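DM from R.C. (forwarded with permission)

"hey, sorry to bug you on a friday — could you get me a structure for this? deadline for the figure draft is monday and I only need the backbone to look sensible"
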Amino acid sequence: MALLKSQIKRRDSLVSWLGGLLYGKFSSIFFKLVNVFYKRPYFASEPLNIKKLLIVSDVDGLGDAILFRRVLESIIDKYEIFLLIKPYHLSVYKDIISKDHIFLIENTASLFFYLNKFRKYNFDCLLLHRVSIRSFLGSLLFFRKIKKIGVFVPQGLKFNKNFNAEEYKNVLELYINLASYLGGNYKFYSFNSLKRTDVQSLDAFIHIGSGSLCKNWRIKNFINLAKMFNQAGISYKIVGGELDFKIFSKSKYKDQLKIIIPKSFEELAGLVSVSKLVICHNTSILHLAATLGVSTISLNCDRDYNWWDSYKNSPYFKEQHIAFNAQIGKTCGYKEQITSLFLEKKQYGCPLFDFIKPESIFQASLKLLKK
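My reply, with the result:
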């Protein structure tokens, strides 16, 4: 089983934060130059008569893999699909795509190796799930003449003729429209095969981390919430990785906190499936809980909640979801990130999230748990 604890990129160290910042700036400059010197690099015509589809998924986030899986579930009976993915996304797809059709992107060299190999497979269409620099260059080098579809296209790049990802207001709407564009009907609920019946049920599943400095409620708030749960007799598990729990180890309440570090995506999904409520940031666990039909409380930065607009009128979001936003009208910028990274490292969280109080989350939990 694929270990989770160190495979998903994080931004809680100076090196990783600077790396993400510099790559983002370089990528922006790269695609601006593409637009200047190569006005229309390629575009997709209406994807009719497609039988064999190659998908290169170069996204980092586990949440995007969970949402994209539901696109694939809606079209797997329409195409022969070959999938190139990050190694830590394998558990998300392996029960819907056959093993001999999944290939792992270990690094840029492996990506180019497989793209070169796949030139002989006579694909009808190439779908890039995130148009990164390397997936863009690889598609130009090895697949110049076949139809191409791009998801998460860099701003201004003229990539798709009939599927323009920039037109959609939020990520869910993008995936819904992508499924429709490919002739499928996007599924909301999924992962039934990962549901557990042999694990004791929980009232609350609390996930404390995220891959971004901009999406973290402070550790002290999670500790205060756990103390309220202890007093109220609410059963819970606090879930995260080894990095998340470094601060917990220094708390005088560490022996009273019920924590666990899942070793695989299967274990993580199993724990979520036996929980009545999941409390987390707008991250992969939130998408996983929703797709398993588990009630959720989301802790969002100001720009995140609109990702869920497509389902605001659904029964799930009317009855099973409560959202809390960080300080309205403010976005976590360099100032907040540097503050979190250096000045408030021991608190591990974005200062804008101080707007959300543990007591408010506790009361919302009681409402959803009907206690």
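R.C.: lifesaver. The radius of gyration is 21 Å.
me: no worries. The longest strand covers residues 275-281.
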